[in-house]
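Can't paste images in this forum, so I'm doing it all in text. The chain is below; anyone willing to post the predicted structure tokens underneath?
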Amino acid sequence: MQDGRFCGFGNLGSRWSFLCHSFKRCLIVDIQSNVEFSEPCCFRFQLCLLRERLAKLLLCRFHLCIQAVELALDGVKAFSHTIQSIVDSRQVATRVFAKGDTVGHLSFEGQNVIVSGSGNVAQYCAQKCTELGGKVIAMSDSKGYIYDPNGVNLDVLFDIKQKRRARISVYADEVAGSEYVEGCANIWNVKCDIAMPCASQNEMDEAGAKALIANGAFAVFEGANMPLTPEAIAAVQAAGLLYTPGKASNAGGVATSGLEMSQNSMRMSWSFEEVDAKLKGIMQSIFQECLKASIECGHPGDMMLGANVAGFLKVADAMMAQGVV
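Text version of the structure:
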């Protein structure tokens, strides 16, 4: 970046430059508009006001997207059609991101899958993976993980977690052939084809990522908020695994909230099938936007770069369209 300009990125660069200069002008005007800053606290207070103003601008961007759900609202990348259950929209989003017509015709059929966690996101992620033909062989909670080479029995798991609210170790006591291992971080040592971290932030470190790579995994799809550390992301990308960031593959919750707000605004009630179809379209749109952005930036298939750039462009375009900057 030079003199507020982002060089080498064409249209993206011009929009970034425009926002940079506009933000700088707003900051100067805001600061100068105050009578005088005789004490440091005044300056800090002014910056807080500016931060609140920018937050409101971003909120306006969200409402603009809501008004055009079918056209502008993002969801979760569309790797084909992976979400037919909308029980807790975030889990749904993760699924759709995981199956890809556009990237290598990815399919869950016959794949061994690890889904970390056992909360809402993880439970329905495992359910959808199973429906798509995959076999979820390991899941976890904060104390440890279960390994079931025959595939996790979701009826038992749901009963343990949803009804009895028990630890996941109970699963190994009740299902023959399964085992429980202390230490949830060790789940990445289990050999698998697809890993879907759906538990918590920073749950997969560099060592966990390298264990997956060494065991032959070919894809990592984030379901939790930032479950991979920066070092883990670098290792996964360097090894050439298909990787999708949670900001895209876990965007289904926000997308479905938008759909709910749309229904409320229009005084309408959509059926399960209608909501599911709209969410699927949102997921597909996100995937296409991320892929398109990665190609335009010269890194086709880098979905993290694509998600970052596509997200920035959406905010920039919305702010400019509303005359905010």
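The beta strands are 112-116, 135-140, 144-147, 179-182, 194-197, 219-221, 242-244. The radius of gyration is 22 Å.
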